[in-house]
Design a protein that fits this description.
Distance between the termini: 76 Å
Largest sheet: none
Radius of gyration: 29 Å
Shape: elongated
Helix content: over 70%
Number of helices: 5
Number of strands: 0
Structural class: mainly alpha
Strand content: under 5%
Length: 132
């Protein structure tokens, strides 16, 4: 039979163990919460950047994408006068989100290659694309 002193000691020790266990979990929860807040802040920054980029006219997008792809793919040195107008509009927008024209060109090339690999290195018509 245990004495009153042993019972009190065991009870206090068990409470202490529970406290340490909860404290450990609270520490992990705090770390996870910090990580989650960081992810949310990063997502907010990305969303804000997308809103800035989305304000670009669709004609500018279409013309600059093909222009940049052609320049990167065929290693052309210069843009034509008309291309420079569209490129400068794009450059103004992407500079607001801390992306250079060179980085944008690399991203475009990566996107093209990724799409090409996904579709088995062949081009699809719009009808074929809608079916898949």
């Amino acid at each position: 039979m245990r004495s009153l002193k042993d019972n009190v000691y065991n009870e206090n020790f068990n409470e202490y163990r529970k406290y340490r266990k909860y404290r450990k979990y609270l520490g992990k929860l705090k770390d996870n919460t910090k990580d989650l807040v960081n992810i949310i802040e990063q997502q907010r920054a990305v969303s804000n950047d997308l809103f800035v980029i989305a304000k670009i006219d669709s004609n500018v997008w279409n013309k600059t994408q093909s222009t940049i792809y052609t320049k990167v793919e065929f290693e052309m040195a210069n843009y034509s006068a008309l291309e420079k107008i569209h490129i400068s509009e794009l450059e103004i927008a992407i500079n607001k989100v801390d992306v250079t024209l060179e980085e944008y060109g690399i991203l475009m090339l990566m996107k093209y290659k990724s799409n090409s690999e996904f579709h088995g290195d062949r081009f699809q018509t719009r009808t074929e694309e809608k079916k898949s």
